[in-house]
Structure formats: C-alpha cells, structure tokens
UniProtKB/TrEMBL annotation:
This is Uncharacterized protein. Belongs to the NPR2 family. InterPro entries: NPR2-like. It comes from Cryptolaemus montrouzieri. GO terms for biological process: negative regulation of TORC1 signaling.
Length: 141
C-alpha cells in the first residue's frame, strides 16, 4: 500500500479548487445589430483586447441553449464568468436584445462564489430594461 502525500496535490489548481482572488475587470457586452458582438462598457477599459474578445465572443454571447445559465470561459491568463441574457421583443433590431455582464479574474481564481453576484446583476439589468428600456434609450441618444 502506497501512501500519497495529499498536500502535494494542492499545487495543482482545478476549477472550483483555485485560490480566492479579486475581480480584475467587469464588462458589459452585447450583440449589436450591425457590428455583432461588442464590449459596450468595461472597467478598467481595454482590459480585454478586441482580438481576444472576438475569438471568445461565441462563448460569451451564446446561443439559446446556454442563455440564463452561468458560463465560465477559462483562458491561459484569465477566467471569464458571465450569465448571458436574451430579451425577445419586436422593439429591438433583429427582434431580440442579447447581452452579458461578465467578470474577469485570474485563470487560477476560484469563481464559484461570484456566480450569484453575476446572476443577480444580470437579472437587475434585465428588470431595468423591461421597466425603463435603458438600452433603447442609449441607442436613441
């Protein structure tokens, strides 16, 4: 019988077993009717480059099967957590408004504790859109 030294396994980071760490960036992205997926707002700005966003946007602005579910995209340097939303209504171009509010953390950061936050913020933005049409008002400015 071989005894395995358990602490040696703690060197390896697996999703859900990583270290707690800060949110490095928060960004709001949407599917623009003519430009496609874009980042509308980010803090700090330009934290994620356009080329990187373009390469992963299919996982951020998702198809119907993944909408209203927590998604995590793990990259070599970053982990992106989001909760994609689709609001169907004829008042929008293409009859729908697709968006996602995302958090970016380091790739070895444990993000499961941020899931309820990103979900709640996405639900809050959805309610704001239903009640006040904040997105449509922004477009008309």
């Amino acid at each position: 019988m071989q005894i395995v030294d358990f602490p040696d396994y703690t060197k390896y980071k697996f999703d859900g077993f990583g270290e707690e760490g800060p949110v490095r960036c928060i960004f709001f992205c949407e599917f623009h009717p003519t430009a496609g997926p874009i980042i509308s707002c980010a803090e700090p700005e330009n934290y994620i480059c356009k080329e990187l966003f373009d390469s992963i946007s299919v996982y951020i602005i998702t198809k119907a099967e993944l909408q209203r579910s927590t998604i995590t995209v793990t990259l070599p340097d970053h982990k992106i957590l989001g909760f994609p939303i689709r609001i169907d209504d004829k008042k929008y171009a293409r009859n729908a408004f697709l968006f996602n509010l995302c958090f970016i953390c380091d790739s070895n950061t444990r993000t499961v504790h941020y899931e309820p936050v990103v979900t709640k913020l996405s639900d809050y933005l959805t309610a704001m859109e239903f009640e006040n049409s904040f997105y449509l008002k922004k477009i008309k400015l």
